[in-house]
Specification:
two-stranded antiparallel sheet; 144 residues; 4 helices; mainly alpha
Length: 144
């Protein structure tokens, strides 16, 4: 598997200057394969994919999108006047307008809740892999 990192070529430079090197026909004589200090900076191990975090990211982004849509619906649809007029000194209330206004207020509240939950889900899905990566590094050091 290919590995990335900063490669140390100093021993190769000094071998070439001294006039001796390795035999290219013998693969076991390759100094790059037997060198203990192969990399000056150890490459990071390949990160495994965290399926749970990817699913949480998609769910969080969809919650954010639904929250934005609900807030836009709640604020962009104009509220109706509930009080139509007075009939003999008694106020006349339009019940359908009152229901619509209540539903718009509920839509605003639902959008705010969805937006908050989506933001927290996205934040958690971004933070968990970095914490797990650090935890796995500590576990690998303890095993060695």
């Amino acid at each position: 598997p290919p590995q990335f990192g900063v490669r140390s070529y100093l021993h190769r430079f000094y071998e070439d200057c001294a006039g001796y090197g390795h035999d290219p026909s013998n693969p076991h004589d390759n100094p790059y394969l037997t060198d203990d200090f192969r990399y000056l900076i150890n490459p990071k191990p390949k990160r495994s994919t965290y399926v749970f975090c990817k699913i949480a990211m998609v769910c969080g982004l969809s919650l954010l999108a639904f929250g934005v849509v609900a807030i836009l619906i709640g604020y962009l649809i104009p509220q109706r006047r509930e009080l139509v007029g007075y009939l003999g000194g008694v106020p006349v209330v339009d019940s359908s307008a009152s229901d619509l206004n209540d539903k718009l207020d509920a839509c605003k509240l639902t959008g705010l809740i969805l937006l908050s939950l989506g933001g927290m889900t996205v934040a958690i899905s971004l933070l968990v892999p970095s914490f797990l990566y650090g935890y796995m590094q500590k576990e690998m050091l303890l095993q060695e």
